[in-house]
Amino acid sequence: MKKVLFKPVVALVGRANVGKSTLFNRLTRSRAALVADFSGLTRDRHYGEGRVGKYPFLAVDTGGFEPVAKSGIVAEMARQTQQAIAEADVVIFLVDARAGVNAHDHEIARLLRRAGQRVFLAVNKAEGMRNAGAIAEFHELGLGEPYPISASHGDGVVDLIEHALSFLDEGADDDHADIAHDEDAYSEVFDVDAEDGLPDLDAESEEPADDQTRHRIKLAIVGRPNVGKSTLINTLLGEERVIAFDMPGTTRDAIEIDFEHEGTPFTLIDTAGLRRRGKVFEAIEKFSVIKTLQAIEACNVVVLMLDAHAEISDQDAHIAGFIVETGRALVVAVNKWDGLNAEERDRIKHEFERKLRFLSFARMHTISALKNKGIQPLLKSIRSAHAAAFSKLSTPKLTRVLVAAVEQQPPPRKGIFRPKMRYAHQGGQNPPLIVIHGNALDAIPDAYRRYLEARFRAAFKLEGTPLRIEFKSST
Ligand code: GDP
Ligand code: GDP
């Protein structure tokens, strides 16, 4: 059992219209386009990966914040915001330079002072503002030095985030450095210099991956409360190994539990039982979206657990969307399959498949964690999803598949340009990244990208992992 550190969480807080989502999009360089069809569920993105300077982090956009409301949907948002504040490592409190300080800002400031978190006051929409007094006015919120920024133009944003994350340099944070290092190891598996023309097509690149990354499967089991996560973990580990954690820790701590299944070493990333203490917001829910996201970040393969007896909710869709965004390998487990009759099973399966169409790259299993049914096939799919995520895609074969795909169906012309794809190589793993080189590739439409993706998927049997395609034009 080891303790690991997660990526730090940066929460964006402030009243409506101050520019939270603008800043969020800038920090996360929105990959929303990857998260296609939620079948009627909301597509709002509130969580994203960011990197400014040397540290990667998770950004959380808390949405509007009305701390005074006592009930209804607004109160629910306030509750979620408070949880996000409690769980964040850093809070960026946004105010509006043009509107000046208002009563609402004071209300939020009061809450933030009580929370005892690291808070950075960002005075947004400050582009082109020469009047220092307008910024200085925000001192009265009692949250220290205001940082003038412009979320839409980018002014001051890097500086702000670097300051906000500078606490990471203070403590010994070696574990965190490990995570960052691991990630670097995943990208840039091949290094083909486009300037030199075609890579050697006869050389099958057989660069061996680090054995640890290749064989040990880092697994996270995520899902809403009561879907059966703890039950599945107990089933996987064996009852005798049930461990009740209750130790103080920060939100960036998690527990790793090693186990083996048929010779394959697994590490389970478990977030259960850890909670922050001595804060105002003590009543942290049993379920934490942020911990869920951090666990997804830290693993290679996610098991997304759903309850056969419950509807798929927006929250499920958010988590699923985040899995796709981070590119983690995925297996869906529909739990509590025991005690359903054939008709119910048919209906539920059909409905889940329809709603989760955007996860069609993943296998869906029906299981009973309680009765230990369907667990072996689930583990098998986890292993194959992991293998797919870490596949080695040789340049010659990638290029052959590409050429065959283009022969069968060339990309559409755009104006006088016909995009020309010359060769493909692998640019990363977990998820596999295929880099296609050629000319005028900016003109390739999404539908054609999806066509290529399907061809690569079929040729390399990439089931269970998202797949990324990147186009690099030399003209
Ligand atoms: P949220 O409700 O806090 O998420 O705010 P939004 O990000 O939706 O922004 C509200 C409005 O402020 C939008 O019209 C944005 O275009 C505008 N806005 C955001 N950032 C800036 C900025 O840095 N400068 C200016 N002038 N407008 C901004
Ligand atoms: P968690 O909150 O996701 O960790 O969910 P738990 O593992 O605590 O399970 C919540 C409830 O669902 C408990 O009462 C479990 O006994 C029950 N449960 C878990 N798995 C199954 C299952 O496969 N079938 C049935 N019928 N109940 C289950």
From TrEMBL:
Residues binding GTP 1, per UniProt: 14-21, 61-65, 124-127
GO molecular function: GTP binding; ribosome binding
Biological process, per Gene Ontology: ribosome biogenesis
InterPro entries assigned: AAA+_ATPase, G_ENGA, GTP-bd, GTPase_Der, KH_dom-like, KH_dom-like_a/b, P-loop_NTPase, Small_GTP-bd
Organism: Pusillimonas minor
Chain's role: GTPase that plays an essential role in the late steps of ribosome biogenesis.
Protein name in UniProt: GTPase Der
Binding site for GTP 2: 223-230, 270-274, 335-338
Coiled coil: none
Keywords: GTP-binding, Nucleotide-binding, Repeat, Ribosome biogenesis
Oligomeric form and interacting partners: Associates with the 50S ribosomal subunit.
Residue stretches making up the EngA-type G domain: 8-172, 217-390
